[in-house]
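Our consortium's second objective concerns turning raw sequence data into structural hypotheses that experimental partners can test. To show how far this objective has progressed, the report includes one record in full. It was chosen at random from the queue rather than selected for favorable results. The single chain below, 251 residues long, was entered without modification.
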Amino acid sequence: MGSDSGSAMIRTALLVLPCAILSWPGDAFAYRPFDSTDPAVADVGQLETELGPVGFRRDEFGRTLTAPHLVLNYGFAEDWEVVLEGQAEHPLSPAEGHSRLVDNALSLKSVLRDGVLQDKPGPSVATEFAVLLPDINGESRFGTSLTVIAAQRWSWGTVHVNAGASLTRDQRAGLFLGTIIEGPYEWTVRPVAEVVYQREFGTNEEYAALVGAIWKVRDSLAFDFGVREAWTNRRPETEIRAGLTFDVSLR
């Protein structure tokens, strides 16, 4: 696919997807702005939408707008969901290349053990298998990943731990470790933090930390904000993330 047709597809997505998404009502609870995830899935017949309308990243290659970042989670069976995601990136300097659609993936997520996130005692445990789809105006090959996720909740907050392995789109072995720490679940606005280590063997190694907050406006709407600092092969990168999450029943 040529760069002009790829850019046209991205522009069309920017116009259509946010309008369609913002027209949907429903109940929701945000689970952004992290790289890691939680061991919970959408209810059967529920489509949960995670939308990052616009973000910003600055690294040694320049400045980039990310607009939009979209994740769709659909609960198709008890303790199972299918996830489709992708992110449009727009370099702010023509020398940095064309707009591109990256981090595209199709995943299956399953809860292995019902726990605190399912209103039951003990830790929640889940697994997620993903097919990493080719980028538009980026890497054109497929990859795969498998992640195990666990969470436990206390009166002071909730901790989620992720451990994953992958075959990247560059056909290299990869490793992902992430931990999310959230403030008390009952708070309307709860502080959040995340630390991440990921490695693509033979090429990249990254350490990252994020701090932010999730604001539950009501059962049907929650907003999130986070600032992420990363060091990839010791080169710094700063990213600002903001978005919202909501869901709609398709039953």
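The partners drew two points from this record. Helices lie at 3-22. The domain at 3-249 is CATH 2.40.160.40 (Porin). Both points have been shared with the crystallography group to help prioritize constructs.
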